[in-house]
What we know:
By secondary structure, the chain is of the alpha/beta class. Helix content is about 25%, strand content about 15%.
Amino acid sequence: MERQWWHSSVVYQIYPRSFNDSNGDGIGDINGIREKLDYLKELGIDVIWLSPVYKSPNDDNGYDISDYCDIMDEFGTMEDMDNLLKEANERGIKILMDLVVNHTSDEHKWFIEAKKSKDNEYRDYYIWRDPVDGHEPNDLGSTFSGSAWQYDETTGQYYLHLFSKKQPDLNWENENVRSEVYKMMNFWVDKGIGGFRMDVIDLIGKVPDEMITGNGPKLHEYLQEMNKAALEGNDLLTVGETWGATPEVAKLYSNPERKELSMVFQFEHIGLDQIEGKEKWDLKELELLDLKKVLSKWQTELEGQGWNSLFWNNHDLPRIVSRWGNDKEYRVLSAKMFATLLHGMKGTPYIYQGEELGMTNVKFEDINEYNDIESLNMYKDRLSKGYTHDEIMESIYAKGRDNARTPMQWDSTENAGFTTGTPWIAVNKNYNEINAKQCLQDENSIFHHYRKLIDIRKNNDTIIYGDYSLLCPEDKNIFAYTRELNGDKILVVCNFYDKEVTFSFDGEFNHADILLSNYKDSSTLIEKLNLRPYEAIMFRIK
Ligand code: NOJ
């Protein structure tokens, strides 16, 4: 496969509202990000994925955009944004903008016009249907609970919103919608961005009358058109958020010959701790064997025909160390284990803010302390269906999106150094123990483990391009694999739990050197290796 700059890059996701507040209003902002660019440089990342900073009434924290070419007041100005781009570029860091074009805000000028009358020139920018027998056109549901159809009194029709009712879906069948989107993308490309993360991009080909939402028939046609109109020739990283992607579908998006996207986020591993066929709130324990199977399938099936993204976390997901690791006595060890496991794989790794500190989930007692529309709507919905408060809170503690959205923990001063004002959402109480200042000072911290992994990746083509093979597929405690390129071999061995286990390598080798371990005194006797709790070692074997 032809080399691309983003094959060897590591991306860091910033959720601006929670990253760093420069002006004391309790809300993170663009100038706050500028203050932390040197911190990111020290970590060694190459790219920032910036969650939305555009004008927005914040029904879904910026994923409801009212003007794609302007900046949210709380976050700063376009001048601040231009400065951020310039200062990031000076440090060799590219910025990916979040492209949210499945829907706009209901406060976007297109929608304000569209809802005025049935013959308004913007009417067809959105998806309107007549009532059927006085009801919603069909049973399509919103991700944020309830029907996906909202009745509009003025014109007597329903409009579609797959997310909140303040996020009306755009009608991609309309050529004008598509060309407006491409024009807007070019506005940002011309500013010198490094690419786009594309929000729920697999929904743009929807056929709501046939109940088709993801992977609609014209999805790839639109993406190829988008590529020609806004991406081609600009050497960008593009990553699509595609909840419904299988490896077959991911190859359609990311096979370079098809000229669509660089890669997609697949979510198959993310669904492994929910009861099949139910919602994300319906919890079950993760089985390591399932995780090994799924991640290994993605590693091998995209080989030569597409490119993987690698992630545990983002702003919609609980913190990995709390989710599948141990956020108590083994917090540091298990966070490093997850880092090693992921960063040894083939693909482009994404780090979500605070993951490099081992930040944990949060448990607010009162539902009113939560901010996220998804959790709040689900709370009401499930209460009305007879679930108890405690049952619902268990789900929110495990899966609620606010787990990822508590403020970044910079130091042990008030509000974790995030703001001098009152933070928009409470800071996790553990900031005295878990914060960036402490991590930077401690050579053995999770931060420095990530930094070393990024450095190892940059200096080892085997990690970027080597073939992947899963070892001991039936072992219920150990996740181990090799990567191999032109005779160079890297072995990654991880104990996934807190019990001691033994690993045996039965391939040929003369000796093994440790590239990185989360224990100071790991053994190199890989033919019979005793692994302590969460021990994770990356070897070069010869
Ligand atoms: C996916 C985003 O990651 C999420 O935060 C948002 O709520 C939905 N798309 C709707 O834009």
